[in-house]
Design a protein that fits this description.
Elements lengths: L2 E4 L7 H12 L4 E4 L4 E6 L3 H11 L8 E3 L3 H7 L4 H10 L4 E6 L15 E5 L4 H10 L3 E5 L12 H7 L6 E4 L9 E4 L10 E4 L11
Parallel strand pairs: 1-8, 2-8, 4-6, 5-9
Antiparallel strand pairs: 2-3, 3-7, 4-7, 5-6, 9-10
Helix pairs in contact: 1-5
Length: 211
C-alpha cells in the first residue's frame, strides 16, 4: 500500500522528504505535487521504475517524459540550449511550463524520444518539489498524473492514494495543487531559426513566451 507522506506546504519536513528520496533511489514510483497538477516521478536511470511509470500513465516510449530540474543550469546539462532558447527559458522558469528540447548524452537513450532524440524539461515553482529535488541531488523523471483513458490531471492526494495504492510507493501530500497540466512548448524549431511551437495550452501563460 502506498505510504502517505503529509508535509507542510511551506516548510516541508526534511525527514519525510528524505524517506521519499530513499524510495526513489530504490527504484520506486511516487506521486508528488507540482505547480500544475500532481505528477508521477522516478529515478532517471532506473529501467524498471521507468517502465512502471509508463504503465501507470498508460503511455509508450514515444510519449515525451519530462525531467524536473532544480534550475536552468541543471536543465542545460540535459538539453542542448542556444542563446535564443535560453532567453525564453529564463523568462518562463520556474513555472508551469514543459519545454521540448534536444537531449544531451546525459539523458539515457531509453528516456529520450526514440526518433527525435528529444526530452521534456521543466523547472517547477513548488516549494515541496524543489526541496525534494535538492535532497535528491539530480533531476527526476516525471509525467503528469493523468489516469489512462482520461483527459484531466489529478490534484487530490487522497484520491491518488486510493486509486493507485498498489502501484505507487508513496504519495506526498502538501495540500491540493492546481488541477491543470503544464503548458508544453517545443523549442527545437528555434535551433533552425524557427519559432517555438505550442503543443499544449495548460496552466502556464503563453503570453509570457510571446506566443
Amino acid at each position: 500500500m502506498a505510504q502517505w507522506l503529509q508535509v507542510h506546504p511551506d516548510n516541508p519536513q526534511p525527514r519525510l522528504l528524505k524517506q521519499a528520496v530513499e524510495m526513489l533511489k530504490q527504484g520506486k514510483v511516487l506521486a508528488v505535487p507540482t505547480d500544475s497538477s500532481y505528477a508521477l516521478v522516478c529515478h532517471l536511470d532506473d529501467k524498471t521504475a521507468i517502465d512502471q511509470l509508463r504503465r501507470i500513465r498508460g503511455v509508450d516510449e514515444k510519449h515525451h517524459l519530462t525531467l524536473l530540474c532544480r534550475d536552468l543550469s541543471e536543465l542545460a546539462l540535459y538539453a542542448k540550449v542556444d542563446n535564443r532558447q535560453f532567453r525564453l527559458l529564463k523568462a518562463a522558469t520556474p513555472g508551469a511550463y514543459t519545454f521540448i528540447l534536444e537531449a544531451t548524452k546525459e539523458v539515457p537513450r531509453r528516456v529520450a524520444h526514440p526518433q527525435r532524440k528529444t526530452i521534456g524539461l521543466r523547472v517547477p515553482d513548488h516549494v515541496c518539489l524543489q526541496h525534494l529535488l535538492d535532497l535528491h541531488g539530480e533531476p527526476l523523471l516525471s509525467t503528469t498524473l493523468i489516469p489512462a483513458g482520461e483527459t484531466e490531471p489529478l490534484n487530490d492526494a487522497s484520491d491518488i492514494r486510493e486509486r493507485y495504492e498498489h502501484q505507487l510507493a508513496a504519495v506526498i501530500d502538501a495540500g491540493a495543487c492546481a488541477m491543470e497540466a503544464t503548458t508544453v512548448v517545443d523549442l527545437t524549431p528555434m535551433g533552425n531559426g524557427g519559432d517555438p511551437a505550442l503543443i499544449r495550452q495548460g496552466r502556464g501563460e503563453i503570453s509570457l513566451l510571446g506566443l
